[in-house]
Amino acid sequence: MSSTKKLAAASLAAALGVSTLAACGGKSDSGSKSDGGTRSKTVTLVSHDSFAASDAVLKEFTAQTGYTVKVLKSGDAGAALNQEILTKGSPRGDVFFGVDNTLLSRALDHGIFTPYQAKGLDRVAADAQLDKDKHRVTPIDTGEICVNYDKKYFADKKLTPPSSFDDLIKPEYKNLLVTENVATSSPGLGFLLGSVAKYGDDGWQDYWKKLKANGVKVDDGWEQAYNQDFSGSAGGKKAKAERPLVVSYASSPPAEVVFAKPQPTEAPTAVATGTCFRQTEFAGLLKGAKNEAGGKALLDFLITKKFQEDMPLNMFVNPVVKDAALPEAFTRFGAASTEKHDVAPDKISKNREQWVKTWSSLVLK
What we know:
- The chain is an alpha/beta fold.
- The two termini are 23 Å apart.
- It has helices spanning 6-15, 55-65, 77-86, 104-109, 151-156, 186-199, 204-213, 222-229, 234-238, 252-258, 292-302, 305-310, 312-315, 328-333, 345-363, and strands at 33-34, 37-38, 42-47, 68-73, 95-100, 113-114, 138-150, 177-180, 217-219, 245-249, 269-286, 318-319.
- Helix 7 packs parallel to helix 15 (345-363).
- The strands form two sheets. Strands 3, 4, 5, 6, 7, 8, 9, 10, 11 and 12 form a ten-stranded mixed β-sheet that branches. Strands 1-2 form a two-stranded antiparallel ribbon.
- The chain contains 15 helices and twelve strands.
């Protein structure tokens, strides 16, 4: 379950016939001698498949520290985390990137991280620091899962687009929404968690019954929902899709512009800003890391302004550092949520499995 937007952006680029290139690591040069002793010059970052950074930024880290970054991609976020839990104490790398607030308690409960307070943490937004007392993980980025809508569809129909969870169950939006299976999709799970935050433990089930009665369609994953069934996306247009509402990301409208050739002056899609669930991704120093010094240096670098400003157009996520500027594509075509829908990581950890089972019985049967 990847919680970044890079794979979605890459799929969107492919739908537009555009190639993307993202630097994901450098050459390995471990075991070299430095300062009279043996010290690895390689720091290994274990990550889900969506990690990406520019060559220039990774080279700057090497120039500053002497360490070369090697990225070990390990599938989606859930699979990558599972491997680190299984190898606890003898990790495959030095730093783990990509555990988000839907999986955070699981990672912390298994004790796979060595506490470390990264330099510059005081510049990170306070609401992103979900482990601020123990510093077992460092916040790196945030993103929002939200309903996106096809602007042309609603303009042509002279219909006001939905803006909230409540709107989606109204008769005028019947048979318009496509979402993803919460058991197999990160955005699908995020949308479910948003409804839990909105309606509470006793109300979200009734909401989903109404959403089902209003004709919501469920696809296995984001790729099918966004690029095949959503009429507003480049892929959806080619597929002659019929659903003008989809669960995707707040960064999807900027991506539609960035990857289009030629680039339009307006995004073809927009965000229902009252339907968003925020994800925060973290990185941590793995317990038993062979290059602990290099791992600490990398964690420091991940929250520098240089790296934070490199992220948006590589992973289509938002910086957590207060002084990091967003690219024009984000500020011009993106949108911020108008309602706060959060669920505490420990509550997610305690209830996630049962919520998924209950959702499946309500919606899929």
